[in-house]
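We modelled the chain as a single entity of 99 amino acids. Its sequence is:
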Amino acid sequence: MTAAPLGPYDGIVMNPPFHGGRRSAAPERGRAFLAAAARALTPRGQLWLVANRHLPYEGALAGLFRHWEETGGDSRYKLLHAREPLTPAPARQRQRQRR
């Protein structure tokens, strides 16, 4: 994912893809989705995501959001919540949406 989706949004819920070709793990693909979500959220926006337990998304969330936490899960999956992106959607996009 190279560009942020349209926005801004108050909240985004996702299960980011992490497979590359031939179903091999490619966590950088999931991290790209996290970064795009952060850019598409309002300054007080929230992100909820479910991910396989072994995927290393915590560091990416720490670099993209003011606050993040694991709110649930089990031995295979984790539920992560992040809020207040460090680089929210540009103000000009927010104004355009309100018209």
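As a brief sanity check on the tokenised model: Residues 27-40 form the longest helix (14 residues). The chain has three helices and four strands.
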